[in-house]
Structure to design on (301 residues):
């Protein structure tokens, strides 16, 4: 008997393929001058990754009946920022990783100097996409709000700030509040931005609904990081696409290290319950947001 199709897996594969095609269009071709840099940019972005942040853009938009074509630039922008952060995080000056998405990290494949430039170029390309995509049918005010949201999420008050907190925390013991503060910035800010960019693409969204979606996004961001920390303990390198146990080897603060493995799993389940509460007033159009929440706490890579 054939297995019944999983609606989330079908939905996710469709949107992964969609954002991959859109990223292909926004990224310069590998033979565009300067070719070495553009080849490395494509290496860092295409053909790998879960694409959860773009999926959140599409899912939040779908909950508000926004056409996917209107959401492509936002989905690309948040993924380009994520890809840039991975390239820079993997550098010897940061986490010094050799493996990313099942292949050599960008600096291993193209050298450290090129990897630095790849991250810089991907970051600027993200804002170019948001600013210039003609299919993003929103007012100038809404477009500016989207640019501001992504800039805040990726800067010192968001992802970059979280990485700075992470670097300062290596080798020292954090309490739970300090750990959550770090991950609200480092991981959660960009996940939150993905949901908000999808919501801002709809002229119908109001502040009350935005508040609910924002709370959903904050919970998802923390749950995602907790699951990452759990997988660093329980996962397998071949499945993860990165080296298992890397966080423990560097004495990085993690949820299992601070709470213990089972309490960390319980905290992820609590956050999942909060996401469901935040979406309770939304109809079946918000099911992709619910599916992503389930996937976040159950995934094995």
């Amino acid at each position: 008997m054939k297995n019944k199709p999983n609606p989330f897996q079908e939905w996710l594969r469709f949107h992964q393929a969609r954002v991959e095609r859109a990223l292909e269009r926004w990224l310069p071709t590998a033979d565009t001058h300067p070719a070495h840099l553009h080849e490395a940019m494509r290496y860092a972005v295409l053909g790998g990754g879960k694409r959860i942040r773009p999926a959140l853009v599409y899912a939040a938009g779908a909950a508000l009946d926004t056409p996917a074509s209107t959401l492509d630039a936002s989905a690309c922008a948040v993924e380009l920022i994520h890809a840039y952060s991975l390239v820079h995080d993997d550098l010897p000056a940061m986490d010094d990783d050799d493996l990313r998405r099942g292949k050599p990290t960008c600096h291993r494949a193209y050298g450290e100097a090129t990897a630095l430039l790849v991250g810089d170029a991907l970051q600027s390309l993200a804002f170019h996409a948001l600013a210039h995509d003609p299919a993003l049918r929103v007012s100038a005010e809404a477009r500016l709000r989207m640019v501001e949201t992504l800039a805040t999420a990726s800067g010192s008050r968001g992802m970059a700030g979280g990485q700075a907190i992470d670097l300062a925390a290596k080798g020292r013991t954090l309490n739970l509040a300090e750990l959550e503060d770090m991950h609200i910035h480092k991981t959660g800010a960009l996940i939150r931005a993905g949901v908000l960019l999808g919501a801002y693409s709809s002229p119908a969204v109001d502040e009350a609904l935005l508040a609910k979606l924002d709370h959903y996004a904050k919970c998802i961001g923390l749950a995602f990081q907790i699951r990452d920390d759990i997988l660093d303990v329980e996962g397998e390198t071949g499945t993860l696409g990165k080296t298992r146990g890397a966080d423990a080897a560097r004495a990085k603060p993690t949820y299992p290290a601070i709470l213990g493995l089972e309490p960390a799993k319980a905290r992820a389940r609590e956050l999942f319950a909060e996401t469901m509460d935040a979406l309770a007033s939304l109809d079946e159009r918000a099911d992709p947001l619910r599916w992503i929440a389930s996937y976040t706490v159950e995934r094995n890579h």
Notes: The chain has a mean pLDDT of 90. Residues 7-298 form a domain with the Farnesyl Diphosphate Synthase fold (CATH 1.10.600.10).
